[in-house]
Amino acid sequence: MSTSANTGFVKNDEPVNRQTFDEVMVPVFAPASFIPVRGSGLDLWDQEGRHYLDLTGGIAVLGLGHTPREIVDALVEQANNLWHVSNYFTNEPVLRLARALTGATFAEKVFFCNSGGEANEAAFKLARKWAHDRFGEKKNRIVSCFHAFHGRTLFTVTVGGQSKYTEGFAPLPPQIDHIPFNDIAAAEAAIGDDVCAVVVEPIQGEGGILPADPEYLARLRRLCDEKNALLVFDEIQCGMGRTGKLFAYMDYDVVPDIMTSAKALGNGFPIAAMLTTTEIANSFSVGSHGTTYGGNPLAAAVACKVFETINHPDFLARVVDAGKKLRASLESVVRDYPDVFSQVRGKGLMLGLVMSEKYHGKAAEITAEAGKQGLLLLLAGYDVIRFVPALIVSDEHIRQGEKLLRQSINAWLKK
């Protein structure tokens, strides 16, 4: 193992390109060949000045699009006042944000951190601590779903039911079991007296843009009540207006005990939240959990403005309308390419274009071709093209997106 180090001075203004990534970055990502340098709304431009229509929303992060003026102004205003004070002190923006979140949801208490993985880590730790305090150390099992995604810490990646993300990292945290999503019988068999928490995404993201059946979530709620377990909703991707409701649980009439939020909460500025009730929150005490940067004034000021913008009836109504129009656009693509696609599924502006059985495993080829055509798309697994554009997506964006998508499909079919 080499211990040598390059101590030469490198100027920060030296040119960088995609090859620089391979030279200096740990290879946990495989980014595109181009490098975005400027964005506005749903528009992106790369180093060469080429334009792209971005329907990825930074993986459902940019709810208000790239560089929205009101969010930039909030960030700059806070940056001129106070950046960081540590959690030995509180600050005004984080208190305003906590009050806004608790005022608009079931929650009474909030814990702020930096990422969705950290929010879920906090949720899972709190669930085990709550059960330990009330029922003893044997009530510690967590039940989650196959094909879920809850983060990249060792704990959260184990709760997420995708073996490809845990290979090579054993031994994994114990007492974590997985059941098929939307399978009520499997839930009834798995949720016993030793379960402290049941964790579910109301709409599975990486699992293929799969909405939960209302009956499934309602049954999970009743099972948790019967077994004295906590119901945890991971709304990191499907929350913050993505489905046309402020949070997806509001459309299901099922209230969780703990909910996590991130992604669009900061519109790209790192911030996440775990929300719960006072009774459950009291299982944590001073020092039992923490974070260095969570709830810092910069992030909280940005999130306050984001939340204020999204949590408005007119804004959410437009998301519902845009979601219907995007779904209709994608369904027309399915009708015209029945050999390639089988269906459209999802809710609001979280939609998946599902590959046909004939073309299983080929979704990545279409998204790669779309990039060449100037359209940025995502995957949800190997067989679903994911559409999670900024919530401000216009009718013209949807029309242009369909045009570029059709160009991409035609170009791909000719190969």
Quick take:
Pathway: Amine and polyamine biosynthesis; ectoine biosynthesis; L-ectoine from L-aspartate 4-semialdehyde: step 1/3; Amino-acid biosynthesis; L-arginine biosynthesis; N(2)-acetyl-L-ornithine from L-glutamate: step 4/4. The chain is α/β, with parallel strands linked by helices and 415 residues long.
Characterization of this structure:
A hairpin with a 4-residue loop joins strand 16 and strand 17. Helix 3 packs antiparallel against helix 10 (297-310). The chain has helices at 18-24, 57-60, 69-79, 92-104, 116-135, 154-159, 184-190, 214-227, 278-281, 297-310, 313-336, 363-372, 395-413; strands at residues 36-40, 43-46, 51-54, 109-113, 141-145, 176-179, 195-200, 203-204, 210-211, 230-234, 258-261, 272-276, 341-347, 350-355, 375-376, 378-379, 384-387. The protein folds into two domains: 18-68 and 313-413, Aspartate Aminotransferase, domain 1 (Alpha-Beta Complex), CATH 3.90.1150.10; 70-310, Type I PLP-dependent aspartate aminotransferase-like (Major domain) (Aspartate Aminotransferase, domain 2, 3-Layer(aba) Sandwich), CATH 3.40.640. With 415 residues, it is of the alpha/beta class. The strands form four sheets. The chain has a seven-stranded mixed sheet with strand order 4-12-11-10-7-5-6, sandwiched between helices. The chain has a four-stranded mixed sheet with strand order 1-2-3-15. A four-stranded antiparallel sheet has the order 13-14-17-16. The radius of gyration is 22 Å and the shape is globular. It is built from 13 helices and 17 strands. The longest helix has 24 residues, at 313-336.
